[in-house]
Amino acid sequence: MPFADNPLVELYRDQWLLAVHKPAGLLVHRSPIDKHETEFALQYARALNGGEHVYPVHRLDRPTSGVLLFARDPETARLVGQAMMAGEVEKTYLAMVRGWAPESGVIDHPLKDEPEDRRLRGTEQPVREALTHFRRLATTEIPVAIERYPSSRYSLVELYPKTGRKHQLRRHMKHINHPIIGDANHGRGRHNRYFAERFGEGRLMLAATRLSLLHPVSGEELTLVSEPEESFLRVLEVFS
């Protein structure tokens, strides 16, 4: 059905694929964790597709904004899914983290599965290989005592996940002691609260900015790019 105020911004469309920018706060599809929710990126993408079914080929966490790709038919979904599993799809994320991160690095840290069903949390779960590359783009230091120092440092980084584990980037940045700002589960509460109060709203400072793959039909390289949304860019004023 049509939506007068569709929150998705169309980035690319052809006979086989539909790419959009998903805002922070919107679920991709129904989840047992958020049973009360009634709005999903999937239904809005279907509206963009003339009411016809679309098939998500990957996921973005609810608080993460950015490039989200759908297939417009089951066979294309299968082909893109195979490419995802084979590591043939390159993803780039932009994140603001606490502290001054190294100029570049590789985080090779296996992660235990995080089941969506809360009843299964705390039970034995498989541990899977997880690999993330990163590059620092900028640093800043603001004259505000948030923890035990008279000033507070932050970095802007690009993240390149080479595997696709649940909450991988958030968990990996916590692992190297540079948690992502706005991450309620893996971040630092004092920093999250400071930025929420300073900018009038809290958000996870993680955005999917680029997705590159070989087109499943033509075989040509396809690169999908989206600038972060306004709520993300406002916080980046601290780097000015």
UniProtKB/TrEMBL annotation:
Q: Which InterPro entries match?
A: PsdUridine_synth_cat_dom_sf (IPR020103), PsdUridine_synth_RluA-like_CS (IPR006224), PsdUridine_synth_RsuA/RluA (IPR006145), RluA_PseudoU_synthase (IPR050188)
**For the Pseudouridine synthase RsuA/RluA-like domain, which residue ranges apply?**
17-175
Q: Which reaction does it catalyse?
A: uridine(65) in tRNA = pseudouridine(65) in tRNA
Recorded GO molecular functions are: lyase activity; RNA binding; tRNA pseudouridine(65) synthase activity
Biological process according to GO: enzyme-directed rRNA pseudouridine synthesis; tRNA processing
Which UniProt keywords are listed?
Answer: Isomerase, Lyase, tRNA processing
Q: What does the record give as EC number? A: 5.4.99.26
Its biological function? Responsible for synthesis of pseudouridine from uracil-65 in transfer RNAs.
Q: Which named protein is this?
A: tRNA pseudouridine synthase C
The uppermost taxa in this organism's lineage are: Bacteria, Pseudomonadati, Pseudomonadota, Gammaproteobacteria, Pseudomonadales
